[in-house]
Specification:
- The chain is an alpha+beta fold and about 475 residues long.
- The chain has three domains: about 260 residues, 4-Layer Sandwich (Phosphatase 2c, domain 1); about 55 residues; about 70 residues, SH3 Domains (SH3 type barrels), CATH 2.30.30.
- Helix content is about 40%, strand content about 20%.
- It contains 16 helices and 19 strands.
- The longest helix has about 45 residues.
- It is elongated.
């Protein structure tokens, strides 16, 4: 026997879609309860939590869920009588479906859950994340077989938490270890964490499941011989002993999810097979259907059984395009979330001061960014103006000396005379005063005449200003 406390918390969106079988109680969408927290405790040979997603707007889906609830209630009774190993070998069939399944005995814990949920173990003063492992060779329905599978041995005072990993990543491992030290106050701790998570942009509420192992009855443990004869409450069957246990990663080393190599290869091969099965079939112009790749493969396997066995033992490596499709950026996302959490928790004892410091850093970075962009733009603008001025001056001074037919020295009689780069231009070469001398180097054309200054620069002036008397 094992004495434990099961706690389930349903978020508002899941309370309208998820139905749970908590030992012998059904809660959620199809139950009459309207609260969000559910607790069940007591001595059981096998503890059970089964979750079924239901479309509340589909009458047929609601009917099927009611049928599933009755079957899970019968399965729970069989679990208490037969034990977990015999139930897993014989009891679970295609009729029992679930989107979440938790089974616990004094010997082992089984968890079947979606990939967007993480299984965490608080043991002693540390928190660990359980890793998926190979599913058991049992008669499981397709809905259960698609879920991630976890298997590990429980101990007294263990605390299990099944929750969204993104919620866990919002907090430091040390904070969670302190809060989860007392599972009797779990609802209060989770409410506090949800309030803090909402300030970081996370949804206000999230669904989670927790299990607190209070006592494992050790009075019935006998020798292996006694256990095999069935006098022990513990299940030492070969079925349970053959299951590979889940590996663990301390939360302080990272909130990571690692699949076993065999399971990763199986999923890749299954993905390739499903992709080939979904490939379009080609029909010839004669009106009959060509054999698909799958039929050709089956014919080849019948003709060459040894080659088929070799392919099964050594499945093909997925192609580059398949690896790209299956690539997951969860590592980068996790790193960014950890960085954001650290930079918004610079001061451990003052949340408001940490937020103000974070905003000040963001404003400083924005100011530096704007200043850098402005500096680069002004530098380019100044460089362009200098280049255009130099080119204009070069054009104005680059007058072919062969075109100079004569030079006549002229005294400036106007109070102020502006020398321009070209006739009618706005670029100024120099400004002359009364009494200055220049050299006329061309005849007047359209009211302008070319002159040369004593320092060698050349430009154009108005004839009426150079010779006001005329």
């Amino acid at each position: 026997m094992i004495r434990s406390t099961l706690t389930a918390h349903l978020a508002e969106r899941d309370r309208k879609e998820l139905t749970l079988q908590l030992n012998d109680r059904d809660i959620g969408l199809l139950a009459t309860h309207r609260q969000q927290h559910y607790v069940a405790s007591g001595n059981r040979r096998v503890q059970l939590i089964a979750g079924i997603l239901t479309d509340k707007d589909d009458p047929s889906a609601i009917h099927n869920t009611r049928v599933q609830l009755r079957q899970w209630q019968l399965a729970f009774r069989n679990l208490q009588i037969q034990g977990l190993s015999r139930f897993m070998e014989e009891g679970i069939d295609d009729g029992l479906e679930a989107d979440f399944l938790f089974l616990m005995t004094a010997e082992i814990v089984f968890v079947f859950c979606r990939r967007d949920l993480g299984v965490y173990l608080h043991r002693g003063e540390r928190i660990y994340r359980q890793q998926p492992t190979l599913p058991p060779h049992a008669n499981l329905s397709e809905s259960i077989r698609k879920l991630d599978f976890y298997a590990f041995r429980p101990r007294e005072n263990d605390n299990f938490l099944i929750i969204d990993p993104e919620f866990i990543e919002l907090f430091m491992a040390e904070e969670l270890e302190d809060l989860f030290g007392d599972m009797r106050q779990l609802n209060v701790s989770m409410a506090e964490l949800s309030s803090i998570a909402s300030q970081s942009g996370y949804s206000d509420d999230t669904t989670w499941f927790s299990v607190h192992v209070q006592r494992i009855d050790a009075g019935q443990i006998g020798s292996y011989k006694t256990a095999t004869l069935g006098n022990s409450q513990y299940d030492h069957s070969d079925f349970l002993q053959s299951i590979r246990r889940s590996k663990v990663v301390p939360l302080r080393d990272g909130n990571v999810r690692i699949l076993p190599p065999e399971l990763e290869m199986q999923r890749q091969v299954r993905y390739l097979e499903e992709s080939q099965a979904k490939a379009p079939k080609f029909v010839s112009s004669f009106g009959y259907e060509k054999p698909s790749l799958q039929n050709k493969k089956a014919n080849n396997n019948r003709q060459y059984p040894s080659a088929a066995r070799t392919q099964e033992e050594n499945p093909p490596e997925p192609k580059v395009i398949d690896r790209i499709k299956m690539w997951n950026a969860g590592g980068i996302k996790s790193y960014l979330k950890k960085f954001l959490y650290k930079i918004t928790h610079l001061f451990e004892h003052s949340r408001s001061l940490s937020i103000l410091t974070f905003l000040a850093i963001v404003l400083l970075v924005l100011l530096l960014l704007v200043w850098g962009i402005t500096s680069i733009g002004s530098a380019k603008s100044n460089k362009g103006e200098l280049t255009s001025t130099e080119s204009t001056l070069a054009q104005s001074s680059a007058i072919d000396p062969d075109e100079t037919i004569f030079e006549i020295e002229v005294e400036v009689r106007a109070n102020s005379l502006q020398v321009m780069t070209s006739p009618g231009a706005t670029d100024l070469v120099a400004t002359l005063q009364r009494g200055d001398r220049v050299f006329q180097t061309s005849q007047a054309e359209e009211g302008w005449v070319r002159v040369r200054l004593p320092d060698g620069r050349q430009g154009y002036v108005l004839v009426q200003l150079l010779f006001p008397e005329e």
